Amino acid sequence: MVTNAHTMEAGEVARQLGVEIQCGLADADARARLLHYGPNALTEKKTTGPWTIFLGQFRSLIIWVLIGAALVSGLLREWVDAVAIVAIVVLNAVLGFIQEYRAEKALAALKRLAAPQAKALRAGRRLLLPAHDLVPGDIVEIEAGDHVPADARLVSLSANFTVQEASLTGESVPGAKASARLDSADVPLGDRVNMVYMGTSVALGKATALVTQTGMATELGRIAGMIQAIEQHETPLQRKLAQFGAWIVYVCFALVALVFALGWLHGGKLLDVFMTAVSLAVAAIPEGMPAVVTIALALGVQRMVKRHALIRKLPSVETLGCATVICTDKTGTLTRNEMTVQAVFAGGCLYRVTGAGYEPTGVFMTGGVNVLPKDEPDLIAALECGVLCNAAQLEQREGTWTILGDPTEGALLTAAAKAGISRDTLGRMAPLVAEVPFDSVRKKMTMVRDRNGIRVAYVKGAPDVMLADCTRVLARGKEQPLADEGRAAILAANNELARQALRVLAVAYRSLDPSATSFSPAEVETHLVFAGLVAMMDPPRDEARSAVAQCKQAGIATVMITGDHRDTAVAIACDLGFFAADSVALTGSELDRMADQALAQQVVRTVVYARVTPEHKHRIVKAWRARGDVVAMTGDGVNDAPAVKEADIGVAMGITGTDVTKEVADMIVTDDNFASIVSAVEEGRGIYDNIRKFVHYLLSCNAGEIMVMLGASLAGLPAPLLPIHILWVNLVTDGLPALALGVDPPDPRIMRRPPRDPAEPVISAHRVLLMLMQGAFIAACSLAAFVIFRDNIVRARTAAFIVLSCSQLFHAFNCRNQVLSLFTLGVWSNTKLVAAALVSLALQVCVVWLPFLQPVFKTQMPSATEALLLLGLSSLPLWLMEAVKLVLRLRGGSDHGPASTPIA
């Protein structure tokens, strides 16, 4: 194989590979090389089997504790609880299995990009071979529509040969190719015009190429290797819930052991005390937490779909909420991916053009004043040149304007349509006679047309080259000699437009001899009449500006990583507002000269990376992650896949994204819009807030249950609750209300907060103290009810049972926000929580009031007066927390301060 083939002449590459370009490899030589280098295919690492993936779902400590709790519940004949716990464990295992089993399809998608067959020259014969049989040194022929079968050095090509390399380079426009050698070895992939690469496709023309790399040695193979080498990272939520679950188990077991010891020391029967302690253990461990987390994430996914974000991996929903950096592509994500003419310089006058995209609506202005194009003959002439030297088609489909053909030519048609110039009408008036296609050496394209019986050559191309071929200029509707001062004015206008990162084309024309039959470039592209400069760009999306501003307000850095040129990228970044005076823009070649340590120091200030390779993107993401940041990385091409997989949140583009990128991504943006990513971050923050709400609710309620039993034991009282009471309360209060808290409406100010620290625990020390205080409220009210009715043990336990259950339902409303009053939030702003509380209350009423359930639960129906008293006691935790919130607000606490971080 040959490295740096782009720096060599094609003949030198052939000599190094030991092949005659005219004949190709001998059959025996090809067979030997196939044995040496291996097939021209991407190899896969050994994958994990389905059973291994499924059994891996049971590695969590809390899962095994739940399995133990199910066994204990079965031994106690508490079948409802046992079945519920088993169902939760199985549900989580199945969801985790599906998620992991589908996560590693990237290489299969990569392999689909490889060409199935190739046209090769072997021993002087042209053969159609399976692409996996190609070897270094093979001569292949490729033409429009073909997939490039391997990395290859171009030997010969047609004048209009272009290759669509967006999947590797990120360039949205097909790149023109040439066969001449390049001087520098470190030329970015997108600028290696004499090379073609596996996984790309030929857009126009045909070429002969010499295979230099095959299989895993190709650029596509290197990307496949990078994907394989990247290990999957746990999300912050997965890490914290695992740590938190273990902490809960240890604390609950310690408290339950204490309750058991105190009950036994106070003379309780060993079997009764044991059954109570076991029931308390089952109740104390929040077995519903994994299920509620899963359901809350799933419901968040449904909401995100409505905001154009499709989540492939559930935990990524939460990870979005703590994103500190969004590394984004430019074309189509921050910009519209629709080239748009911004200015036209004609007749010595600069015209600004409004409107964006391919919709032909907009106005022309000069000097800040609107003008009518029909009154500006030089402007009309320049626009007509752009239309008559054009092979694209502007169409309206289902209300949307689209372009068939090259985006640059589409922009010219749209600008002309804004001036009332119809391509179809003009084309009928000036039918095509001949075409001289664009090539990268001439940097021009020409179309000869018959206009009113006169043959006219219409030319467009690079301004510096075009200007050298112009001898006259159109001014005020008349052709005049192009003097030195006129050339200087045109060059000055071109430089000014280029400084604005606009892509500038020159347009010109020339009348030909009516009898001419030969239209070579040398004959038609000289002595031109300069008509004007047309400047265009892919404009930023309007919604991207507000999304970038929202990121800045939320403390999220926006970083652009693009295959485009630096000036263009910086101009877009400035326009969108995330390139400041002290910001830095780096190119891929500059990154190559920068050590990882230097990049780590520079990465915070660098907001634009241009002309980058897959390795560069991967390094950038790793540099951010090494600082402890949570990185979201967007991508569409194959070249983005390694960085997308490396990132904490990989985001693929749904419209332009390749299958490879979608398979490794955590999230797919269905409209390719940066604003949709920011919306997903907002949803992610809201979902994490809701997860903390119901975790807070579950643990504070469970703390109350333990404290009831512990308080009674310390006071020497009989057990205020029976095992069935504890299990029932756990079943009724831990289900629906917790789920309802999982869909609580997000705080409208949620994007004004900085990203939370990924290392921050789910439950902080401050929150633990608050939960213990709230649990103590619940326990105190339940024990008070028990003491009030202590003259009758059945009535006393019924009272404690009712208050413990109902007080937790009232407490659910406390958990919506730590500082703001329930009445500020609005009682009915979460109707699902109200409905859940009413359903749970109805179930509690049934087990106390229905005669056939009273013997099962050992309850006694209270009188109306007693019921009102118990309801009042149950509501005390709500009013006590309202008082605490009032004190916090009076002391100046806010729901965003460090001491009063909201549950919401």
What can you tell me about this protein's structure?
With 904 residues, this protein is α+β, with helices and mostly antiparallel strands. The chain folds into five domains: 5-45 and 109-229, Calcium-transporting ATPase, cytoplasmic transduction domain A; 50-103; 236-308 and 682-750 and 757-900, Calcium-transporting ATPase, transmembrane domain, CATH 1.20.1110; 319-335 and 541-672, Rossmann fold; 340-537, Calcium-transporting ATPase, cytoplasmic domain N, CATH 3.40.1110. The chain has 34 helices and 30 strands. Strands 12, 13, 14, 15, 18, 19, 20, 21, 22, 23 and 24 form an eleven-stranded mixed β-sheet that branches.
Q: What structural class do helix, strand and pairing data support?
A: alpha+beta
**CATH homology superfamily of the largest domain:** Calcium-transporting ATPase, transmembrane domain
Q: How large is the count of helical segments?
A: 34
**Average pLDDT value?**
84
Domain module count: 5
State the CATH architecture of the largest domain.
Up-down Bundle
User: What is the name of the CATH topology of the largest domain?
Assistant: Calcium-transporting ATPase, transmembrane domain
Low-confidence stretches: 102-115, 894-904
Biggest pleated sheet? 11 strands, mixed
Radius of gyration: 36 Å
Number of strands: 30
Beta content comes to 15-25%
CATH class of the largest domain: Mainly Alpha
Give helix % range: 40-55%
